[in-house]
Design goal:
With 344 residues, the chain is α+β, with helices and mostly antiparallel strands. Among the domains are: 22-100, Ubiquitin-like (UB roll) (Roll), CATH 3.10.20; 106-212. It is 53% helix and 9% strand. The protein contains 15 helices and six strands. It has helices spanning 3-10, 38-42, 60-67, 117-135, 153-168, 170-179, 183-193, 199-209, 215-234, 245-250, 256-269, 275-292, 298-311, 316-323, 328-342, and strands spanning 22-30, 52-53, 75-82, 89-96, 141-142, 149-150. Strand 3 (75-82) and strand 4 form a beta hairpin. The longest helix is centred in the middle third of the chain and has 20 residues, at 215-234. It is globular and about 55 Å long. Pfam families: HEAT_2. InterPro entries: ARM-like, ARM-type_fold. This is HEAT repeat domain-containing protein.
Length: 344
């Protein structure tokens, strides 16, 4: 794939909570299925592509109630994600025809345990620096050691501190991740734990965290696992085992962050075209992959497009060539047609 484009977007941190004013340059939809026109959703939104918005002032609850007025729609979700290839935000708007089982995630822990201030302060500085890197277009990162190290030097220096904290405070990080009643501290613990030198030791902790009741905790844990999964594929001697099932389920989840990071980790787990995983995706997530592979936000669409192409039996070189060509839509339709025929 075009690494300079993909690495910049594919494994970004959760920026859906970014609250400063920005321009929506893309609205992408998911969960609507085959029989619901885009206009049924777009007409209910109080914003359009090209609008300047402040996400914290958008009444998402009110919008979701409007979305639930569509016959058969049970729930909705809205994420504002920075930044897309049009130098603006994407508004990801999802719906579900099924009643969302809010108890499908783990019950939130309630112990009054927090991370040391130095870990929290460094994390907050890193997130501020990350936005600097995004504005400067310098978000490439090296993941060869099983954790992310940005090439933007100010951010990289703070990630070096993550490495230190992951060693010095590992028992505290693990305890907070499993037991703290503070979701923000659990989210920080998930991200910093991914920098531990012994990936085997913390993989199960992160796998548990993908069922956390908080969306950002799940996001940070899954992102760390996606990088570890790619690392383990490159070096089988690590003997790191990450099950695909929970992440295939994420492909059809209502929250956008679950879908995004589920795709990221499945890209790593199917890099060797593991047929068992691809078959399970075909049976469980075909509709979701078909829909997401048609998103206008290229950096996210290519994840689903690649998974769809792999499921149809194509190597990455062919998939990449099709995505960055005038034949993108034709190749996608061909994959969809093949998969439908194979399922008969």
């Amino acid at each position: 794939m075009k690494k300079s484009a993909i690495i910049s977007i594919l494994f970004l941190y959760c920026l859906a909570g970014f609250t400063q004013q920005g321009k929506i340059t893309i609205i992408d939809l998911y969960g609507k299925g085959n029989d619901l026109p885009d206009s049924s959703i777009l007409n209910l939104l109080p914003f359009r592509e090209g609008n300047l918005v402040e996400p914290e002032n958008i009444d998402k609850t009110r919008i979701i109630e409007k979305l639930k007025s569509i016959p058969g729609v049970k729930d909705g979700h809205i994420s504002f994600v920075c930044c897309n290839e049009k130098e603006g935000w994407t508004a990801f708007v999802g719906i579900t025809r099924e009643t969302v089982a809010h108890n499908s995630y783990l019950q939130a822990p309630d112990l009054d345990v927090l991370l040391p201030d130095e870990i929290v302060d460094n994390y907050n500085r890193f997130m501020d620096t990350l936005f600097e890197a995004i504005r400067k277009g310098q978000v490439e990162e090296d993941r060869s050691e099983g954790h992310a190290m940005m090439r933007y030097e100010p951010a990289r220096q703070l990630q070096q501190i993550f490495l230190q904290h992951a060693e010095q405070f590992r028992p505290v990080l693990r305890y907070v991740l499993h037991n703290s009643g503070n979701a923000s501290h659990r989210a920080i613990a998930a991200q910093v734990l991914g920098y531990a030198s012994n990936k085997n030791e913390i993989t199960n902790d992160l796998i548990c965290a993908i069922e956390d009741s908080d969306e950002i905790v799940r996001n940070n844990a899954t992102r760390a696992l996606a990088i570890i999964a790619a690392y383990a594929k490159q070096d089988p001697d690590t003997k790191i085992i990450i099950p695909a099932g929970p992440f295939i389920k994420m492909l059809s989840a209502l929250p956008w962050t679950d879908r995004n990071k589920g795709m990221a980790i499945l890209l790593a787990l199917t890099s060797d075209l593991d047929q068992a995983i691809l078959n399970e995706m075909k049976h469980e997530s075909f509709t979701s992959l078909k829909e997401m592979s048609n998103w206008k936000t290229e950096g996210h669409a290519i994840m689903a497009y690649t998974l769809l192409g792999r499921t149809a039996g194509y190597p990455d070189k062919i998939i990449e060539g099709a995505f960055y060509s005038a034949n993108r839509a034709e190749f996608r339709e061909n994959c969809i047609r093949q998969l439908k025929q194979a399922s008969r």
